[in-house]
């Protein structure tokens, strides 16, 4: 089983993808993480990726193809994958499908977790991350304001550049312009299922499971 989890920033794609990976013993393919790791590399590819994601732009299809192949190479063929947040625009669809075909994989379901623009801004501007263990926290909810050390591992807490309001607005603009055609593409293939992402984490997960099971 190979799944896609799509949705606007802050929709909880990563949370649901991890829950699905654990439930069905799937490989969790976090595209954003691979891009951020690549952006840290002192290479032409790394510098290019950094210049795109730090300004809230979608990464081009050629670069996505390289990232995809790099990630898929290490996954056993017999193990299913849950893809978090890819493809992001129409140009990436072709690259994504080509990479899947090269590794003899097909998409079983694509889930679109929907939340409003207002909810996206509310969630992301309050999101903080641990540099050491990559745990996510929400200010005022799972992390007290002013706390600078991770309560799980003691690592440094920080706010990602692409979680700041100006970049979020740019990311949302990109999302509405370029990602909605991807949603339509999988709808037409009868693989896309829309889920209300403004529910609790457990309810969103139950709604996804209802379609799979």
CATH topology of the largest domain: Rossmann fold
Number of helices: 8
Q: Order of strands side by side in the largest beta sheet?
A: 2-3-1-4-8
Distance between termini?
Answer: 12 Å
Q: Which strand-content bin applies to the residues? A: 15-25%
The tally of domains stands at 2
Percent range of helical residues: 40-55%
CATH homologous superfamily assignment of the largest domain: P-loop containing nucleotide triphosphate hydrolases
Structural class based on helices, strands and sheet pairing: alpha/beta
Q: What's the count of strands?
A: 8
User: What is the typical, i.e. mean, pLDDT?
Assistant: 89
> What is the global morphology?
globular
CATH class assignment of the largest domain: Alpha Beta
Biggest β-sheet description: 5 strands, parallel
- Which regions are unreliable across 5 or more consecutive residues at pLDDT < 50? none
Label the CATH architecture of the largest domain: 3-Layer(aba) Sandwich
Q: How does this model look, in words?
A:
This protein has 213 residues and is α/β, with parallel strands linked by helices. The longest helix has 24 residues, at 165-188. It has 2 domains: 2-116 and 165-212, Rossmann fold (3-Layer(aba) Sandwich); 126-163, no CATH class. α1 crosses α8 and α2 crosses α3. It is built from 8 helices and 8 strands; from the N terminus they run βαβαααβαβαβββαβα. The chain has a 5-stranded parallel beta sheet with strand order 2-3-1-4-8, with helices on both faces. A 3-stranded antiparallel beta sheet has the order 6-5-7, with no helix packed on it. The mean pLDDT is 89.
